[in-house]
Design brief:
By secondary structure, the protein is α/β, with parallel strands linked by helices. It has a domain of 179 residues: Serine carboxypeptidase S28, SKS domain (Four Helix Bundle (Hemerythrin (Met), subunit A), Up-down Bundle). 36% of the residues lie in helices and 10% in strands. Strand 4, helix 3 and strand 5 form a beta-alpha-beta unit. The two termini are 43 Å apart.
Length: 568
């Protein structure tokens, strides 16, 4: 029986868009973990992705302090990391640090799976990757009980980066003048941006790809973007299939038919079973959208093929079943799917990456992807906000009840979508549902920063190596990122070995006009795809991040949506 833990929420991880570490054949990958917003780790679960172009890259272990808030504490744990120093040059010491997210890291993080390798070779940098506490093999004492999970937070993860930086400096005899650039995608993309924000004297630049920096309890816009990316005809088909499933759920005989049709392990009994089943059905659809054509070949097909598959069926319900069957065949899953709510809660008591990420969403970020009746998205409103918050309380019974995310505190602490920082690139793709929670501010030229919404790309697309068929906007974005990286390196290294931050800290960019960084001539025309003129830019920024002022529904009210920019 394939038991499935419904991990709440989806960023990433993760691309790294670093994220869920759940194999594609796992039921967890249908919802929650599979679109936790991480792209990286989910793909790295495959053996071919784990192969290292360097040969045998061995894990190393950093003795990490468990509680950074208590300097008198002597409790520690072993935190896994990998290093590739094959490109490192002593004359210009540089470290490119890939931050682990909500899943395990692997040798692939430092050996060619991501574009960071090409940049490291170009600039003579050492590559390091640090696994996030409570993920992969870096779980303190192997214990993710609710009591021990109090040591899991984004703030403690940032402190881990600081002590790891100190340890790596000592281990490899790095001089004080070493330039450190952090990279991350999805949740770890947020960590990259926050590392530059909180420690500008230690991390001199950051690439925050597909970073959902705005914590948000109710993330109903996720399914709205899924619908927009699929198009009207495909969304209409899914609307009809949802209606057909809803009709069958209204009777015992209908539920029995659904159990057989979708090869469920047991009957659909409670209302929570119903919500869990409907949420599970949305998983393969949302996954295709989130990771559409992202240069990994780890989805069963792209948006066009998905919609063609739905259209080819005799009925919309048959089309949904065909997609479900295709997903199981693609992920080599021949077992039944357990959608029982109680069994899911029981499974989530065990130590796992799914449990850890669920804790973080319940405690810090929210990101709960409910399906509201807004006339835009095609999934059942029985996938409700209450369905997710119920899980927080049922999975973590030892926590103070009700156990809900402290989204306001997180946004106050880091700045949310109004993060004040410099030397940072925030890149998103407009096909990716997570782009809604990104940063779209304008930055003055002297802040050496950019916010980029790349038309036609999905989650963490710019973190993967380039290819010939990349859209023009993605190519231009990479060129812009490369030039900004060169400027960060020069700005820090021109200051000598004093260890001063490259551009200072906490400069408020709000109110400055947006200026494009100068680019090679070859990228000038393509830049229009990611940096439109002032009027188009205002429309793009206004259309994309609906969370800017009011997030989701307020007291059950309907949200008003502005038109989104067309994809290129």
């Amino acid at each position: 029986m394939a038991s499935r833990a419904l991990l709440l929420v989806a960023l990433c991880v993760a691309c790294l868009c670093v994220a869920s570490a759940v194999p594609l054949g796992s039921r967890e990958s249908l919802n929650g973990v599979g679109r936790v917003h991480g792209a990286l780790n989910r793909r790295l679960s495959r053996e071919d992705a784990l192969r290292s172009s360097l040969g045998d890259v061995q894990p190393q272990w950093h003795t990490q302090q468990l509680d950074h808030s208590n300097l008198a504490s002597t409790a520690t744990f072993k935190q896994r990391f990998f290093v590739n120093d094959s490109f490192y040059t002593v004359a210009s010491p540089r470290v490119f640090l890939m931050i682990g997210g909500e899943g395990p890291i692997s040798p692939a993080y430092v050996s060619g799976h991501f574009a960071i390798n090409g940049l490291a070779e170009q600039y003579g940098a050492m590559i390091a990757a640090l696994e996030h506490r409570f993920y992969g093999e870096s779980v303190p004492n192997g214990d993710s009980s609710t009591e021990n999970l109090r040591f899991l937070s984004s703030a403690l993860a940032l402190e881990d980066l600081v002590t790891f930086r100190e340890a790596l400096t000592q281990k490899y005899h790095l001089p004080p003048s070493t330039t450190w650039i952090v990279f991350g995608g999805s949740y770890s993309g947020s960590l990259a941006g926050w590392a530059r924000l909180k420690y500008p004297n230690l991390f001199h630049g950051a690439f925050a790809t597909s970073a959902p920096v705005q914590a948000q309890l109710e993330f109903s816009q996720y399914f709205d973007v899924v619908a927009r990316s699929l198009g009207a005809q495909c969304t209409a088909s899914l609307n009809e299939s949802t209606a057909a499933v809803t009709t069958l759920l209204a009777s015992d005989s209908g539920r029995a038919s659904l159990q057989k049709m979708f090869n469920l392990c047991g009957p659909i009994k409670s209302d929570l079973d119903v919500a869990n089943f409907l949420s599970t059905l949305s998983g393969p659809i949302a996954g295709v959208v989130q990771y559409n054509d992202d240069n990994t070949s780890y989805e069963m097909y792209d948006l066009t093929q998905l919609c063609a598959r739905l259209a080819a069926a005799d009925t919309p319900l048959q089309g949904l079943q065909d997609v479900w069957n295709d997903y199981n065949a693609f992920s080599n899953n021949t077992q039944c799917t357990d959608i029982g709510y109680d069994s899911m809660i029981a499974q989530m008591q065990a130590t796992s990456d799914a449990r850890s990420w669920t804790y973080q969403t319940c405690n810090e970020f929210g990101y709960f992807q409910d399906a509201i009746n807004d006339g835009l998205q095609p999934f059942s409103p029985l996938i409700s906000l209450e369905f997710y918050t119920q899980q927080c309380n049922d999975i973590f019974k030892g926590a103070a009840q009700p156990f809900l995310p402290k989204t306001q505190f997180i946004n106050d602490y880091y700045g949310g979508a109004q993060i004040v920082t410099d030397n940072t690139v925030f890149a998103n793709g407009d096909v990716d549902p997570w782009h809604v929670l990104g940063n779209y501010q304008s930055y003055a030229a002297d802040k050496l920063s950019a916010t980029v919404l790349i038309h036609g790309t999905a989650h963490c697309a710019d973190m993967y190596p380039p290819r010939a068929q990349d859209v023009a906007g993605l190519t231009a974005a990479r060129q812009m990122q490369n030039q900004l990286l060169a400027q960060w390196l020069a700005a820090h290294e021109n200051k000598g070995a004093a260890g001063v931050a490259s551009a200072g800290a906490h400069h408020r960019p709000a109110g400055f006009p947006h200026r494009r960084p100068s680019l090679p001539a070859v990228a000038a025309a393509a830049l229009e795809a990611i940096f439109p003129g002032p009027e188009a830019e205002a429309e793009q920024v206004e259309a994309a991040p609906e969370q800017r002022h009011h997030h989701g529904r307020k007291h059950g009210g309907r949200r008003h949506h502005k038109p989104r920019p067309e994809r290129v």
